[in-house]
Amino acid sequence: MSPSADAAAPASTSGPPLAPLISAQLKFLLSNPSLPVKLGQIWSGCRNGRYADRFTLAIPFCLDYVYWDFLYNALYPKVAPDVVFGPGDEDFQPLVDYDDAGNGDKSCLARWDIRDPRGLLNLVEELRLLYIEYQKKRVAEVDDTRLKFEVDTVLAKEGIEVCMVPLTDRPDEVKFAVPLLDLDLKQLVPGCPWKFPQKIHLQAIFPVSRSYSSVSSAPRLKLISTPEMKSFFSVDAVKLPAWVDGMCMAEYILALEDDLKNQVVEASASIGSRRRFIEALAPAFGRPLEADPILCRNATVLSISGIFTFLVHFIIPLQFPRQQPILTLQSSQHCNSQGIPITSSQINDYPWSPRWDPTEMVERIYDFLADECQNFKKFCSDGVPPTK
Fold first, then answer.
1. Peptide bond into 293 cis (omega under 30)
2. Regarding predicted confidence, which is higher, 143 or 210?
3. How many CA atoms lie within 13 A of 363 on its CB side?
4. Which residue, 59, 107, 207, 237, shows the most beta carbons closer than 10 Å to its own?
5. 201 — phi, psi (to 5°)?
6. How far is it, in rounded angstroms, from Cα 7 to Cα 189?
7. Which residues pair with 285 in a beta bridge?
8. What is the DSSP letter of 32?
9. Range in 60-69, 269-278, 362-371, 378-387 the model is least confident about
10. Can the keyword Cell cycle be found in this entry's annotation (predicted)?
């Protein structure tokens, strides 16, 4: 297996461009939202060739990436590419196995047409599905009674992926990637700009053991989601249910999903609470200059005290109203020696109660800032460099 998802290799921009027909297929693949593939190195199979004709793709699999090389031939661009799979997957011969099973004519390679921009996407999707089955087969062959039971009870769940993780310094491991919550998250966040489907997965890692005991050690468990999802729901802050002795993963998933569903619905309701807080700013501070209209995570208002003009930036946490907004003041009249507007440190020591209605929350903040802005004004005046 490859390194973590964040470590997917960036594309190489040096060297000759890809042959036009090959480039069209690659661009179509990379623009497809259903499979977020990343592009690695691009190179040419011919020394001093006019066009590049091969590249590495990072293919998402089991909450990680596998790296495969796709080798076209710029001299014969109409021919389908060869594929070189990663180390440790020498037994993965998908096209041979596919043909032996009598499904060779169903492969997209049997009707390959370089003029079809979907050709590479279809090939990657086909190979990825075959790789998922290959890894399931490897795990099913492991001589571990407990793992065999886990595989038999959870692999029927739609979308689950599993893989062997060979290790040199300790027993091998088996990793499960289990999609959670059959919810349309876009409906919970109207107007959200997410380009890709948002998912929460449970990662469970079991050590491979040849001995079976009635009290097996708990797997390592972790929730993983897309970065965009974390702007709506604090996945890292979720406290996972305890793994009870004798529990199996199918049982654990049911308990986890019930708990997680309630938290996701609560996170959706929190958007409405944050929106009402932002709306309550207008009577006291005036209409916000800026505000997040979708997730309602931040807002900025303009305030005046005498002749001192300053901005108040509100960062509203996901756990609002249990957690209060973080305030930062920014002068509109004072800059430091680099010409950057002077700002205060983050402020969260003002009066607050989650039981107040939004109007009272804002009024308490307004009263607090009436005094605090004088301290900030003095700080700005002391920090302004002397004029020459």
1. no
2. 143
3. 5
4. 59
5. -120, 150
6. 29
7. none
8. -
9. 378-387
10. yes
Query: Residue 4: CB partners within 8 Å, gap ≥ 6?
Result: 64
Q: Give the Cα separation of 266 and 298 in Å (integer).
A: 19
| pLDDT 10s digits, 116-147 | 999 999 999 999 999 999 999 998 888 888 88
What are the backbone dihedrals phi and psi of residue 92, each rounded to the nearest 5 degrees, phi first? Answer: -85, 100
Compute the distance between CA of residue 276 and CA of residue 296 in angstroms, rounded to an integer. Answer: 9
What is the model's pTM? Answer: 0.77
Residues 6+ apart with CB under 8 A from 154: 160, 176, 178, 249, 250, 253
Region at 19 (left for phi over 0; alpha for psi -120 to 50; beta for the rest): beta
Burial of 86 (0-12, 13-18, 19+ CB in 10 A): middle
| Contact (CB, 8 A) for 316 and 295 | no
User: Measured between alpha carbons, how far is 92 from 86 in angstroms, rounded to an integer?
Assistant: 10
Dihedrals φ, ψ of 39, to 5°?
-95, 130
**Is the separation of the CB atoms in 220 and 205 below 8 Å?**
yes
Q: How far is it, in rounded angstroms, from Cα 354 to Cα 336?
A: 37
Helix or strand or coil: residue 146? helix
Q: Give 214's strand partners.
A: none
What does the alpha-carbon distance between residue 90 and residue 110 come to, in Å, rounded to a whole number?
A: 23
Asked whether the CA dihedral 126, 140, 160, 30 is positive or negative, the reply is negative
Report CA-CA distances (Å) from 29 to 15, 161, 244, 340: 21, 22, 44, 43
d(CA 246, CA 235): 26
Neighbouring C-alpha atoms within 13 Å toward the C-beta of 109: 17
Model confidence at 213: pLDDT above 60: no
Cα 354 to Cα 322: distance, rounded to the nearest angstrom: 5
Q: Residue 295: what residue type?
A: L
**Dihedral sign, CA of 194, 197, 203, 208?**
negative
Report yes or no: 330 and 341 within 8 Å, Cβ to Cβ: yes
- Locate tokens 């060297």: which residue? 15
